[in-house]
Amino acid sequence: MDNYIGKHLLIDCYNCDMDAIESSETALHTLADAAEKIGMVVKDTFFHESEEEITAAAYGPKSHICIHWYPKLCYAAVDIYSFDQDLKPARTMAALRASLHPEKIRATSVKRGNINPDMKPNIKSKSTTLHKFKNTGQQMKTAGQKVANYMRHKNEKRDTLGPE
Fold this sequence. Notes:
Blueprint: E1 4-14, H1 24-38, E2 44-49, E3 54-60, E4 63-70, E5 75-82, H2 92-100, E6 104-114, H3 128-160
Antiparallel strand pairs: 1-5, 1-6, 2-3, 3-4, 4-5
């Protein structure tokens, strides 16, 4: 039996309202709304802005919410992680729709932290990469020899042409 205790929700918001995140206050307000919807207690926040991207994050006990906003693309990537069974990350969808006004949302849910004492690590060893590297070296050597032979042959032909 799987004993997953963590949840990770990845949300893509497409064709968002360009003015949806116009300042750090707006971004932090969006985070506060999202945190409130899932019952997350915010202990700290982070905000960073550059020409291409605005990043805002809220951190709580065993959880975080992070929004990467790309205004020129009208796109927001939202990351909600919780290692707390009581938090429900999917409840943020309404807050995101109200704040960002996206035309389309795509959400991907990932289970995290399979705490199962019987779980054995899945170990596979492959030498494929090294094998490909060795083959590439051999292929380059062969190609180099072909080029050298071609150049030698071409020079021999050129040397026989013309007066001496």
